[in-house]
Amino acid sequence: MGSGLSTNNPAVVSAFQAALLHQGLIVLLIVALVAVAWNLARSVQFRRAHAAGAGVAPLVPPGPAPEPVARRLLRVSFGLIWVFDGILQAQSAMPLGLASQVVQPAAAGSPGWVQQLVNAGTTVWSYHPVAAAAGAVWVQVGIGLWMLAAARGNWSRLGGVASVAWGLVVWVFGEAMGGIFAPGLSWLFGAPGAVLFYCFAGVLVALPEGAWAGPRLGRVVLRIMGAFFVGMAVLQAWPGRGFWQGQPRPGAAAGQIVGMVQEMAQTPQPGLLSGWVSAFGRFDAAHGWAVNLFFVLALAGIGACFLAARPRVAKVGVIAGSVLGAATWVLVQDLGFFGGLGTDPNSMVPIAVLFLAGYLALVRAPAVGPATNVVPITAVAKSAWRRWLAADDPAYVFRTVAALGAVGVTLLGAVPMAVAATVNRADPVMAEAVDGGPQSVNALAPPFALVNQDGEAVTLSSLRGKVIALTFLDDTCTTDCPVIASEFRTADGYLGGDARRVEMVAINANPRYLTPDYLAAFDQQEGLEHVANWSYLTGSLTQLRHVWKSYGEAVIYLPGGAMIGHSEYAWVIDSSGHTRDVLDTDPGPATSATESSFAVMLANTIKTVLNGQ
Amino acid sequence: VSYPVDNKSARCPWSRSAVVLLALALLIAGFDGGAGATAPGETDGALTAPDVPTPLATSVQTSNGTWATIPMGRLDEPLNTFWQLFYRPNGPGPWSNQVEATATATNGGLVLASAGPSLLVGVRPSVNLTFTPLISTSNGGRSWSDGLVPRELAARPAALATTTGHALALVNSPKGAQVLADIGGISKWRNLVTVGALARSKAGKSCGLGTLTSLSYQGARPLVGGSCSHGGVVGLFVEVDGTWRLAGPTLPSALDNGRAEVLGLWTGDRTTMALIAVADATGTNLLAAWSLPGGGWAASVPQVVGQDEAVASFGAAEGNGIFVLLEDPSGAEQFAVAQHAGTGWRQLPPPPRGTATVAFAPGLPADALVASGTSFSVWALKPASNRWSKAQVINVPLQYGSSS
Questions:
Q1: Average pLDDT per run of 10 along chain B, which is 404 residues long?
Q2: Is the Cβ–Cβ distance between A193 and A177 less than 8 Å?
Q3: Which residues in chain A have their CB less than 8 angstroms from residue B144's CB?
């Protein structure tokens, strides 16, 4: 009874790939439009220059100061990271695997309110796995391209804002707030969530460019990072959290780091990497206390260097932080995306980029105030639009047009995702993944003459003129039948006003509990007692056996205290008494998403038959 | 473009930032620590009603034979635990499995009640089922009739009671425990009393009624057992002229301040039997009690339940007796029978390891019913040697995964 859905379910994977392909074609169209727009802009530039009498393209006058190196580092690095994350989102297992393999494990140790919040997100995802997964790909690729393309001005700052906004969505719903409210929080395992650093970087990119003048911003960034490192050192040192413990002997309880490393070593990855991770795991098992002491001291030391925010000391912190981060990224985090369903390269790379950017902002900040031959940085954004109109900077024109294209790619993912989030009916692809789609037939439906839950006689001919959705339900079933009944009730609701032209019919499939009392109890259990077009039918065992046989319904006693076994199908019969479609009704995993999905598929099938009459 | 080097860092109060972030880290660590305020089971030191498990594995006698229910399959997986219904007719015949008569999944457990030749079986609901199918036989399972209780039957071995033409059911309802009485047949029921109503009655107040636990009949009158928070009172209630009255036995003087809970009730030959757990400062004791023909009750000598022991099964024994199986953490079981008021519990040879319950039949020694996975074995107590010997094995085909 019931089969779970594999993350590589062919129906869902196929639908996901088709969605990516279709949206990819739209992206190509956007690229073409960008190329055309840029070409047009360049033509206008040339004509204006020609009209001015130069005959050649104008020399570019002294431009604004170059983008501060720290900002460029942040923008380009996080742009690339977003693009990389978007590519990871395109893994075929993402539609069905994200909730079960990424989000729910991340939220497992968190308090109830965090889990409820996360569940709200995973519910939306599980109702629309294809739209959500494809949308996530294009949102992340789009934001990445946006940050890469828009180097200066408001478009660039907006890219930072988009990064913050999407980052917060991912941090809350995808990373369960980085597990900050769960036990075992540690810098080594990615606390407080890699995407939170994307948000931090997005905030910095979104700052007015004037903020990058002088070393003040660099000091602030370094101090924030320093305080973070010191806080993480304290957490790492906190007794009773399992970090001081190795694994004294095989089979003994393993400390947190050993456990994490051993888990990482088991994931599929290149042999060389696996060897390193395993070797570190063995080392930590034998010297757990010393390894943790090293991490505590290293984190505290690096934090102190950043808190000092002096160039020479900070440089030491940058070097030490980079080395420690690289080692942790490889030996503990396993590069972040190996094994399971990786969605990002974890926290070490974003952290390193941030403190490096802080350091560069400190030591290579543009001067405050105007200088000879230097256009003030604060003036860049203000003059950008005028310069765009003057078309005196081909690179700027290209970047602006490309940024617009990237915004288009982002919207290509975000809009369908937002629309899906407002629809509380699941994508029917889930039902297709469980049971396949409806099978069209055209045969006269076998007649029946039974009684309903109120003891009233009901025959197939008495329902003539209505479309009938018919199934067989065991009235004392503990698993599937209540789910199927619930799906029928939901489908009836989805029909809206059309429900008046439809009769939802179930025929008893239990050979012992035959009286209408059971049907009434079942209806009450499933909230069907007030559904006007619901009929649950029963009869004598002889009558029921005749109907079971005529519909090919196999009903058997299963041994050993199991419930009655019976086949699970639904017949959609048109108003003239002909069966038009047969649907497999096995509820599979019977999640709220698959239940809603089946109800949508059933309602759609009924509507098709209604419309075909 | 110039890139001035910062030389002003020395004046910045980085230590203040560090302190603030340190405090933040400590706050997070506080979230992480998860130190509980109160350990599980910790109380304010006051005595409460005994917390004795009431396993559903048991046996009952009808005038035709003996019925037993035990769990089989993978007992650590609720959906792969299938409760079985076994029957042995009076006489030397073997046991047979009758569970297919339930025609529904038995993962929630079976509750048995008997009167004369009749057996009433409640199939406790599980997973998505919320009402309770009932089946009944009066001819040793050759034919069955059926009914239903529109709610979830309580998970207690004495949650059903039957007498000629009538039945009672103890159910879990939104208002708490509730006793239903049939109104002709076993498909239509009326509310007899709820735990709230009984607790508000004079009898309920004098007991400090906690919950309802067991049902039976005293003559034709419904008898309802419960747990009392007031010391020295046994929560046994009988309805007389629309008023609920305490009917229970008085506790022995050694236990007269103990908190009592009625674990089971049975209708015997011209008597009603009760198994009562009493908790006091020294631990938990079990008492068997019998109603007397002229009114009132008489109790056995207490049977002490060791601190590390658990009640594995209890039920009615031959000759108006009550049996109890106590299990220690190693799985070893102690088998005792109370037969007469005023006397102690008779200790019988420990049954084989894994015994789920024991069963009695007229003129025959006790059978120990042992389940292991899909194997059901019967061990008979040989009176001559006072030892258990294997008498029968049945392989029960279980449909693992059928309820998931």
A1: 36 47 49 35 49 90 96 96 97 93 96 96 96 97 96 97 94 94 92 97 96 94 95 94 90 90 93 95 93 90 92 94 95 93 91 96 92 97 88 95 84
A2: yes
A3: 512
Closest residue of chain A to B32, computed from CA coordinates = A183
- Asked if B107's CB is within 8 angstroms of A234's CB, the reply is no
Q: In B, which residues are within 8 Å of A517 by CB distance? A: 147-148, 187-188
Among A173, A163, A175, A179, smallest CA distance to A126 is for A173
- Close Cβ partners of B143 (under 8 Å, ≥ 6 residues apart): B137
Residues of A in contact with B26 (CB under 8 A): 234
Tell me the pTM. Answer: 0.82
Contacts of residue B74, defined as CB under 8 A and 6 or more positions apart, other chains included, come to B80, B81, B373, B400
Tokens of A345: 């390269």
Residue A333 pLDDT: 82
Query: What does the alpha-carbon distance between residue B275 and residue B257 come to, in Å, rounded to a whole number?
Result: 18
Q: Residue B39 and residue B78: Cα distance in Å, rounded? A: 27
| Secondary structure class of A68 (helix, strand, coil) | coil
Q: Which residue type occupies A72?
A: R
Closest CB to A521 among B9, B22, B150: B150
Q: What is the dihedral of CA B281, B285, B289, B295, to 10 degrees?
A: 0
Contact between B399 and A560 using a beta-carbon 8 Å cutoff = yes
Interface contact A558-B128, CB threshold 8 A: no
User: Residues B327, B333, B339, B343: is their CA dihedral positive or negative?
Assistant: negative
Backbone phi, psi, residue A108, to 5°: -55, -45
Nearest-by-Cβ selection for A561 from B32, B105, B144: B105
Backbone angles phi, psi at B92, to 5 degrees: -85, 5
Pairing between strand B110-115 and B118-123? antiparallel
Longest dimension (CA), chain A: 102
The pLDDT assigned to A2 comes to 35
Q: What residues in A contact B106, CB-CB < 8 Å?
A: 561
pLDDT at B36: 34
Indicate if the alpha-carbon torsion angle A576, A580, A586, A587 is positive or negative.
Answer: negative
**Is any Cβ of chain A less than 8 angstroms from the Cβ of B134?**
no
CB A21 within 8 A of CB A15: no
Say how many C-beta atoms besides its own lie within 10 A of residue B179's C-beta: 25
The DSSP element (H or E) to which B265 belongs, if any, is strand B259-268
Do B277 and B286 meet the contact criterion of CB atoms below 8 Å apart? yes
Residue spans of beta strands (DSSP E) within A313-414: none
Cis bond before residue A192 (omega within 30° of 0): yes
d(CA B94, CA A426): 55
Point out the residues of chain A with pLDDT beneath 70: 1-4, 52-65, 338-340, 367-393, 613
What three-state secondary structure class fits A306? Answer: helix
**Tokens 């674990």 -> residue:** B263
What is the 3-state secondary structure of A515-582?
CHHHHHHHHHHCCCCCCCCEEEEECCHHHHHHHHHHCCCCEEECCCCCCEEECCEEEEECCCCEEEEE
- B34: left (phi > 0), else alpha (psi -120 to 50), else beta? left
* Interface confidence (ipTM) of the complex: 0.85
How far, in Å, CA of B74 to CA of B82, rounded? 8
Substitution target from A512, A523, A526, A529 for chain B, most B beta carbons within 10 A = A512
Q: Which of A323, A410, A314, A379 is nearest to A70 (CA)?
A: A314
Task: Please indicate if any CB of chain A lies within 8 Å of the CB of B374.
Answer: yes
